[in-house]
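This part of the workshop introduces the protein records we will be handling. An example says more than a description, so a record of this kind follows.
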Amino acid sequence: MNAATLRKDEFTMAEPIAAPARIAPPASAPAAARKLPFGLKLPSGKAAFESAWPPLVGIAVFLTLWAMLAPMVETSLGALPGPGDVWNAFVGLLGEYAAARTEAATIEAAGSIYTGPPTFVDQIFTSLQTVGAGFVLASIVAVPLGLVAGMSKRINAAINPLVQIMRPISPLAWLPIVTMVVSASVTSDDPTLPKSFVISAIVVMMCSLWPTLINTAIGTASIDKDLINVGRVLKLGWFARLTKLVLPSALPYIFTGMRLSLGVGWMVLIAAEMLAQNPGLGKFVWDEFQNGNEQSLSRIMVAVVVIGLIGFLLDRVMMVLQQLASRNHAV
């Protein structure tokens, strides 16, 4: 049987083979996946809108009610200022700061020293420096002590009564004691740091270290027992156990305590400055209250709003630092 002759046209297919589909290039990453420096993520437009409109509506409603009800509230200095009056007072305070800076530059260029009174903006920076110093001192004391208390039940039992007794003490009670101690200790006519600054910073430290101390101790004591057992198996030393096991686990508690301490310190500082007449926003509020002119109430309201905004911003900064620290330890 002869094999059939194969011809080339018999291999011709009725339909050509389709070219393989090209894989479409990946679409650009959505906004939610785009990362900012330090590992932070940029939210999508929809997510940003959903998170932004409720507080914006709440603020708008509050300002509307404020503007409507303020004229109905009478004080010894006239009607309560509305949002427009407070804004005008804020612009005036900024104008005073700009004029003071111009005058200071002229005087210093002539070789003299500017000795004018501090402006509202100067008082803001003074308060921020003071609360920063007090917060750092509180953290230096509270974090190590909280770690030791959390790692040792006996030390925790020893200091717990003292913490519970000293924690509720008002800053107004600490202020006279701290003032007398600092005044007796700092006897130089030209100290490196002004007495008023040292007094306010120590009062802030004394009143704000407790949230950090308590949260650090709780976070350290609540570490997973399996991690402790792993450390024992690996025969880790005290310092290695602290840095490798305890700190990463207790870090969220530590930063939560520090956020609370910073908020407490900011509130304490304003009261201490107002009572002791130390430079800062508290003194600005008290001076305006004592002046009692027609603009004083508006300027006090400006200070109140600025104090609240600064407190909010300080809390947001601590929250971002907490997220960065937690992410770095998780990596």
Q: What stands out?
A: The first helix runs from residue 45 to 69. The radius of gyration is 31 Å. The longest strand covers residues 74-75. Confidence is low (pLDDT under 50) at residues 1-21, 23-33.
